[in-house]
TrEMBL record:
<dbReference type="GO" id="GO:0016887">
    <property type="term" value="F:ATP hydrolysis activity"/>
</dbReference>
<dbReference type="InterPro" id="IPR003593">
    <property type="entry name" value="AAA+_ATPase"/>
</dbReference>
<dbReference type="GO" id="GO:0005524">
    <property type="term" value="F:ATP binding"/>
</dbReference>
<keyword id="KW-0547">Nucleotide-binding</keyword>
<keyword id="KW-1003">Cell membrane</keyword>
<comment type="similarity">
    <text>Belongs to the ABC transporter superfamily.</text>
</comment>
<keyword id="KW-0997">Cell inner membrane</keyword>
<dbReference type="GO" id="GO:0055085">
    <property type="term" value="P:transmembrane transport"/>
</dbReference>
<dbReference type="Pfam" id="PF00005">
    <property type="entry name" value="ABC_tran"/>
</dbReference>
<dbReference type="InterPro" id="IPR027417">
    <property type="entry name" value="P-loop_NTPase"/>
</dbReference>
<feature type="domain" description="ABC transporter">
    <location>
        <begin position="5"/>
        <end position="255"/>
    </location>
</feature>
<dbReference type="GO" id="GO:0005886">
    <property type="term" value="C:plasma membrane"/>
</dbReference>
<keyword id="KW-0813">Transport</keyword>
<keyword id="KW-0472">Membrane</keyword>
<dbReference type="InterPro" id="IPR003439">
    <property type="entry name" value="ABC_transporter-like_ATP-bd"/>
</dbReference>
<dbReference type="InterPro" id="IPR050319">
    <property type="entry name" value="ABC_transp_ATP-bind"/>
</dbReference>
<protein>
    <submittedName>
        <fullName>ATP-binding cassette domain-containing protein</fullName>
    </submittedName>
</protein>
Length: 268
């Protein structure tokens, strides 16, 4: 596998103002060091307020870090600057999948227009080329070309999730980032979405970084696990190594909690 992303010395510090009789709250994330390989699936786990979602937003550039560098597809970016509208390389190489796909879809416009928006902002394709790419992407995620003309209310939850995936991959990114992408889905749709992501990874060579509290999905899907606590990466490694031989107290706590919910015969 080839490295598609390397994060170096990523730091973010946020201070909430002091309230009456309370000290000001300071949350510091980092310094973060990590790398992602082509086609690799990386899961980020940890308790609430560990900094997982914040890290994901900084990776895609929706929140600027205080310092640090992100190297994407051999291009270096200052993590303290959000991507400018005139420079699309970073936003094209790494894309976000939203947790609630229905809330991310404008009910007043068609699927075709929803998928055309990132193309209009980031490419120089003409109308015919855009429509062809949109239809091909819909087929790629298991939908029909005719879904181009559908509105949100005409789609099932599973189809809406596929539209969200189509929007994420239409610019042919190298990395997809998702914060709890399976939490809002019922088990059958969740299984379909997991299988679809695995299929797209195989076909497109995508790397996938996702945050999840569902360690069953993490164990099934991830090649590598990153464990966070209080804004720090406290442990990382291959998935089976983390699950079988956790080293850090936080990792042990998370794994033991997961194992207590799983029938013992499946752990052997």
């Amino acid at each position: 596998m080839n490295e598609v992303m390397r994060v170096s010395d990523l730091v973010f510090e946020h201070s909430r103002k002091k309230r009456w009789l309370k000290k000001p709250e300071i949350f510091r994330l980092g310094p973060i060091e990590l790398s992602v390989q082509r086609g690799e699936t990386v899961a980020i786990i940890g308790e609430n307020r560990a900094g997982k979602s914040l890290l994901a937003k900084m990776l895609v550039g929706t929140i600027a870090a205080d310092s640090g560098e992100i190297c994407l597809n051999s291009q270096r970016y200052n993590a303290a600057q959000t991507p400018s509208p005139k420079s699309h390389h970073r936003s094209n190489d790494i894309r976000m999948i939203f947790q609630h796909s229905s809330e991310a879809m404008n009910p007043g416009i068609t699927v075709g227009k929803i998928l055309n928006e990132p193309l209009r902002l980031n490419t120089n394709l003409d109308e015919v080329e855009c429509k062809q790419l949109i239809e091909n992407t819909l087929v790629k995620v298991g939908l029909l070309r005719e879904h181009y003309f559908f509105y949100r209310h005409m789609l099932s939850d599973g189809q809406q999730q596929r539209v969200a995936l189509a929007r994420a991959i239409i610019l042919q990114p190298k990395i997809l980032v998702a914060d709890e992408p399976f939490a809002a889905l019922d088990p059958s749709i969740r299984s379909q979405t997991v299988n679809l992501i695995l299929q797209l990874q195989k076909e497109l060579g995508l790397a996938f970084i996702f945050i999840s509290h569902n360690l069953g999905i993490v164990r099934h899907l991830a090649d590598k696990v990153i464990v966070m606590e209080n804004g720090q990466i406290v442990e990382s490694g291959k998935t089976e190594t983390i699950f079988r031989w956790p080293q850090h107290p936080m990792t042990k706590k998370l794994i033991l909690s997961y194992q207590s919910l799983v029938p013992q015969q499946t752990l052997r």
